[in-house]
Amino acid sequence: MSEAVSALAGATYDGYCKVSDAGPVGMVTLRGDLAAKGFGAAVKKATGCAVPGQGALTSAKGRRLAWMSPDELLLFCGYDEAGTLATALGAALAGQHALAVNVSDARVVLHLEGVGAREVMAKLTPADVSPEAFGPGQMRRTRLAQVAAAFHMPDAARFEIIAFRSVAAYVFELLSTAAQPGGEVGLFPAGE
Amino acid sequence: MLILECPYCGVMADETELAAGGEAHLKREGPGSSDADFEAYLFDRMNPKGVHFERWRHASGCGKWFHAARNTVTLEVYGTYSAQVSEPPKALVTAIKRKVPGWEGWM
Ligand SMILES: [Zn+2]
């Protein structure tokens, strides 16, 4: 096996927020009928995570399970366990119309942290990222400038962003430019 | 700026994360149809000044197609609904009729 590297090889940028490549992250895409009988129990058994409701994200055992669409979930897990978990999901869902695939290398995972993190996101996405509208436990698929992306908040001062690997450098530079010192707007002054 | 609620994600999606799909509820004319019917299917559109039913796709979001009813003059959005129907929900049509007295109605 060749050595796994994330799209940006651990790149970081220190502006008024910090932008960083999260390194290799395991990701398993799961498609199926989320409302089907036995689906939730099978997913919980294989991953430890409960099936999230619309627009939500659950976590357990250091893994996260995000709602992507009415028939799609995305599991974030350790890079080395993604293959095993995809197989386990496939086995647990045998007999159901479902598919689990290890897609760890398809996307980039970026972190954005700092007091102005919400503001940096607001510069790039049409989604409402105000504290009233968005917070930890929610998952939002939308766009960042010109490309599709999704994000959630691991805690009140941090965003975890995913985008396709082919646009990793573009998204990293978008976030870095938006987080440049001198670009502070003071949009969410509560420090949120 | 047009903002539509994606019926699948339940979020208010700004026009820039959506892709427009043109007039809704067209009847597909396939092999065996007359030339006139096929031409109408390809090219004839209502293009109304007023109530319009359209197809939209949450392109940067869940990726799903859905339907929207809106007014091309006032830009008011009457509602969005599932893609898996061949005509707008009755309740929505009734609500639009109440709001737009002169509207000729659905089809
Ligand atoms: Zn959607």
Characterise the protein shown here.
The complex is a heterodimer of chains A (192) and B (107). Helix content of chain A is 19%, strand content 33%. Chain A has helices spanning 39-47, 82-92, 117-122, 168-178, and strands at residues 12-14, 18-21, 26-31, 57-60, 63-69, 72-77, 99-102, 107-113, 139-144, 147-155, 158-164. Chain A has two domains: 12-23 and 107-179, Gyrase A, domain 2 (2-Layer Sandwich), CATH 3.30.1360.120; 26-105, Alpha-Beta Plaits, CATH 3.30.70.1520. Chain A is globular. Chain A is α+β, with helices and mostly antiparallel strands. In chain A, β1 and β2 form a beta hairpin. The relative contact order of chain A is 0.20. Chain B has one domain: 2-Layer Sandwich (Folate-binding fold). Chain B is built from two helices and six strands. Chain B has helices spanning 35-43, 90-99, and strands at residues 3-5, 12-14, 19-23, 51-57, 65-71, 77-81. In chain B, strands 3-4-5-6 form a four-stranded antiparallel beta sheet, with helices on one face. A two-stranded antiparallel ribbon of chain B has the order 1-2. The mean pLDDT of chain B is 96. The A-B interface holds A 54-55, 68-70, 72, 126-128, 140-143, 148-149 and B 8-14, 16-17, 59-64. Residues 6, 8-9, 58, 61-62, 64 of chain B line the site of zinc ion.
